[in-house]
Amino acid sequence: MGGQPLFILDEDAQRTHGKDAQSSNISAGKAVSESVRTTLGPRGMDKMLVSDDGDVVITNDGATILSEMDIEHPAAQMIVEVAQTQEDEVGDGTTTASVLAGELLTKGEDLLDDDVHPTTIVEGYSAAAELAQDAINELVLDVDLDDETLVEVAESSMTGKGTGDVEAEKLAEVVVDAVRHAKSDNGVRRDNIEVHTQTGAASSATKLVEGVIVDETAVHDNMPTSVEDASIAVIDTELDVRESNIDAEYNVSSVDQLNAALDAEEGELQGYAEDVLESGADVAFVTEDVADRVASQLAKEGVFVADSIGSSTAKDIVEATGAKRVGSLEALDEDSLGHADSVDVEKQGDDDVTFITGGATAESVTVIARGSTEHVVDELERALNDALDTVIAALDAGGVVPGAGATEIAIADHIRSEAASIEGRKQLAVEAFADAVDVLPRTLAENTGLDAIDALVDLRAEHESEGIAGIISEGQTGVVGDPVEYGILDPAAVKREAVDSATEAATMIVRIDDVISSS
Prior knowledge:
By secondary structure, the chain is an alpha+beta fold. Among the domains are: 14-141 and 401-444 and 485-517, GROEL, domain 1, CATH 1.10.560.10; 211-361, GroEL, CATH 3.50.7. Helices cover 48% and strands 18% of the residues.
């Protein structure tokens, strides 16, 4: 017994442990972080991602880049999850979180090489993250979040992103209008703001519609293309001949029997049309199919009907118009109808779409994003969604802080000033965290064309003397200045989430010293 080896793993299993495991995981995380680093800031570059099928995505959105990349390494996947968490929670700052996580891993690797225990690194990083949150709270600006300030927030989030032929400021105004329309006493309902994309026009044609846009149009050519003061029904049933639930055959032995069957079918369809008309609806959105004969009858009476409406679209119509979704025509009556100022079919590019505007409960709004190509309009959609999320985060989750790297400079300075009070080797990890945060303004400087070291020295000096300093992009280069004076503002929630998610990912990877993979 004593001389026999004991096998607990499959012979084909692979195991990497100790420093080899730590080095492999940290290298994978750093590689993912580096892949998005050049996209950071107003002068960030785009990435072209080509799938196996030849589909092309051109973007500098961190979450999109990482989600489109075919990443298999489990540690690298954690950095992807950092970006996804950032996107889900606050909608922006994905590149910031990913780059910070990668730099925390770089500094963590240096500490491991100096024989600092992983647990000590984790404790130091956690303490530094708390100090970072304190610094962010101190940096929140005491300003009214009026439209002018929110436009600056939205514009800051879109600067450097693909906005076609239109300036970010104009799009920012559309974004703020959309958020204001969706705001209530309980905050902003993000679900009430849709971004509808349509190719065939320049990005400058992007506009806000107070209502809902539906891709489906009338099921019959003779139906009206515009209905004013519309009474709207939303129907969750098929307006067609009902089929039997059992597999049965019917023998028709005479013309009279055939005529009777046809008359019964015609009567059933006629009844559907009459039920819709008796309810008082002059517009009906049906989630199932509508028979041609029902459509024809309703067209004669001037009723607009669209069928095969998606469930989410039906939900949007209900919220915009106050209609009740009914599962049968027996439940359709005047009380179940919603109302809108108008329902209009308009041509957008090569397609016809239906606009429902001025709904009775119209907190729902739609931003129509236009672009000359699919690539342009897709990137514009991402930019608009990020801007919407940042404005909402500013309103609902803690105000705004200076952008352009100023917040990160202040965070690093605060952590360094508090590090001396932390005993033992944990202090090394706290200081390393501060050095890692410097990667963000340093990267902004690099992407703006400045010398990173000189810019960092100038930033620290300006912060020390003025209390605030950021990298401002001007022309083909950048300058050190006050981002608030330039209207460069970020939601505090984006900074808080980036620190938390990056710290969690980095500490989790640093603690791993054994990787066991099955065959």
